[in-house]
Amino acid sequence: MSDYILEMESITKTFPGVKALDDVNLKVQHGEIHALVGENGAGKSTLMKVLSGVHPYGSYEGSIVFKGEKSQFRNIKQSENEGIVIIHQELALSPYLSIAENIFLGNERQSNKIMKWQDTFSQSQQLLDQVGLRESPETSVMNIGVGKQQLVEIAKALSKNVKLLILDEPTAALNETDSENLLNLLLDLKEQGITSILISHKLNEVSSIADSITILRDGKTIETLDTRTEDISEERIIKGMVGRELTSRFPERTPNIGETVFEVKNWHVYHPQRSHELLIKDVNMKIRKGEIVGLAGLMGAGRTELVMSMFGKSYGRKISGELYKDGKQIQAHTVSDAISHGMAYVSEDRKTYGLNLIDDIKGNITLANLQRIARRKVVDANQEIRDAQHLTETLNIKTPSINQVAGNLSGGNQQKVVLSKWIFTEPDILILDEPTRGIDVGAKFEIYSLIHDLAQQGKCIFVISSELPEVLGLSDRIYVMNEGEITGEFNRGEADQENMMHYMTGAGGK
Amino acid sequence: MQTIIHLFRNNLREYGMIIALVLITGLFWILTDGVTFTPLNLTNLILQNGFILVLAVGMVLVIITGNIDLSVGSVVAFIGAIAGVLMINHDVPVWLAVVLSILAGAVIGVWQGFWIAYIGIPSFIVTLAGMLIFRGLTLYLLNGQSLAPFPESFQNISGGFLPDLFGGSDIHILTLVFSAVISLVLIYLEFNRRKTQLQYKFEVVPVWITLAKLAILVFVINWFAYQLALNEGMPMVLVIVLFLIVIYTFIMKNTVMGRHIYATGGNKKAADLSGIKTKRVVFGVFVNNGILAALAGLMFAARLNSATPAAGEMLELDAIAAVFIGGASMAGGVGTVIGAIVGGLVMGVMNNGMSLIGIGIDWQQFIKGMVLLIAVGFDVYNKNKG
Description:
The complex is a heterodimer of chains A (510) and B (386).
Chain A: E1 4-15, E2 18-29, E3 33-37, H1 44-52, E4 61-66, E5 69-70, H2 76-81, E6 84-87, H3 99-103, E7 110-111, E8 114-115, H4 117-131, H5 146-159, E9 164-168, H6 176-191, E10 195-199, H7 203-209, E11 212-217, E12 220-226, H8 234-242, E13 260-270, E14 278-288, E15 292-296, H9 303-310, E16 317-325, E17 328-330, H10 335-340, E18 343-346, H11 350-354, H12 361-366, E19 374-375, E20 378-379, H13 381-394, H14 411-423, E21 429-433, H15 441-456, E22 460-464, H16 468-474, E23 477-482, E24 485-491, H17 497-504
Parallel strand pairs in A: 3-10, 3-11, 6-9, 9-10, 15-22, 15-23, 18-21, 21-22
Antiparallel strand pairs in A: 1-2, 1-4, 4-5, 7-8, 11-12, 13-14, 13-16, 16-17, 19-20, 23-24
Helix pairs in contact in A: 4-5, 8-17
Chain B: H1 2-10, H2 12-31, H3 39-64, H4 72-89, H5 94-119, H6 123-142, H7 152-159, H8 173-199, H9 207-230, H10 236-254, H11 256-266, H12 268-273, H13 278-304, H14 315-325, H15 337-356, H16 361-385
């Protein structure tokens, strides 16, 4: 009856304290490639989770009509039975099993619980031919590259008689050739009548193969563009993605910038496991006294990898390049070297990398610099209490006592504890990785004020953030990264969200 | 009354353990018609369990870092065998044999710590291998036979008593002096802690609770010392154990090293990114455990007055059980030396009491297993609820 294979209408999904999706509409026509774009956190993944039943029927508001019928999926199994298959960014393959076993995992060719290997292999072969993958079905998945693994995932989806294929950032981990093959395959599948939803940050891909594009921003549908009826440029898409106004979410500040303090030159880093894969390519950066420098980029651009490799080689291998502080070359082979050179790194994931959740506030604050309160390796407990209390008051950490266990604090207060911990090491260079992730607006303002204070004290501050307004609002200068390279550099005032997005998606630099 | 309930709720883990100890001792006191509390039996209790307590102190450090050591039972046997071969077969002086045995323990710790910390093999596997390796080496050293007897001065490690400097005839005066000094130190520490808490405006318990707590503690210590004094006084084993408790509690609570050990177990990744050399911490903890296992091995051999191939079998499980009954967590980051000692005493009192009332080894094992399960189960239940 209708042209649409999928109609999602006024979908609203709330998590405690956050409205992740607010009255979102998504209509996908039969046999098209429909792109879903938006910034990190715009709600793309949540929307797909609602569709596939990860967030079961009843946990959201709104209606989903698939193939003309109302759907009420309670789990992934039900949506897969109807022919909706999601391929996630992190592939869900079992590395030690063969291609054929992976294709039919959970859906085994069997008779009375006994594996039918003949069918498994012959049917896998057909599917592999269909996706154009020339590998034996008996090969272990861990012995083929990421690009080919992606094809195995698609073959797996085809084996489930897929009607609607959803790909979440399928080309994020692929090189140019593999990306191109994959996109061509999507066009082939379209010929065979399979509808796809493509989630991607790479706007050149989107504008080249998508038939229509839905843009999400802050959990709302902004617009749906049809590339068949009008010519959609990348600029047009970017405008839709970032159209938000910068309000006064940032405290006032007059920068007071001095001499260059810290420099990185010719920095190269390889992947920690796949040691031939170059992740960070020839990065050169510098930062001056009292300066706040933003590092912008999309997920996977290599920002965290870059700063962690600088911080005592905490990430990657075969690291080459030089670090300079106050004009002199420094060596930071271990984290304690880096700390003693005045570096501090506040990780993006405070629970995994920042805090000992079962220890109290004071223990967490002093951990990275215990010698400051120790005499002959014996900790002065009174000094510790005084220092921890002082920082708790300065940073306005809301807690009944410094003996409170860190795991019981709210996200904003945990973040302040991590910041206190690194302020306690008396650093000259502070690297803040997503300092306001998962924090409410009020606490964000406090963190911004704190960052300003630290800069005022003459510290150099790197800020990594996936929220463009945050980078623009905080930074005196911004480096933009894409695929492990610095693709652009802007001073305050030169940058706006649109031209930065160009460099972040790789559309501007090259 | 409210305060007591509040206090109890907040310290359930700590108090639960002590209450368990009190209940179990009380139970055996009734079941044995008071034999448990005779001076002779209390002395025996210490002598029988000294080496388990020493092992528990080493083990709690290992478990706080999130690891485990299954090899200590075999190490106890192996060190006993080394000491036996040195002293009995080769007439090496006792002091030298003791030093060499402790060194051997350190080397064992270096060996296991190397594979675990620097190569990255899980401690379960490395120490399971160690359990077999050192049992095998023990059999080889002893040719499958027992070696006995040890020189008398060596036996004193385990069976000896502190000489009475005050020359008491019916009662051991030095022991009483000792317990009085300990009581005064405890009172001083408690009030000092209270003073600090008040100074920094922390919440403190009402003064009468502190006084009541101290009164009970002081009474128990002095009553216990009095009973020992009525027998032969303070065993050497108790001196060793008390010394270890003081040293290791201080290290874990007040030194940078202790903080690093807790931080490594609490969140290894965060500790790494805070500049803590977590590999070195894990390595050090295993070396330490090797040394303490060697000490326990010497105490065990001295008590048995022989080096036997089957020595220390299942001892690792007693030590591990003591640590977990004492409130440590399998996931690491949690546990105290005192807790491990209390846990060790729970196991010890049960062993002793059940033997006194003549329960067979079959039911003894069964009951010990159930107590371990219930103690840790109670802990997990509370944590999930809270």
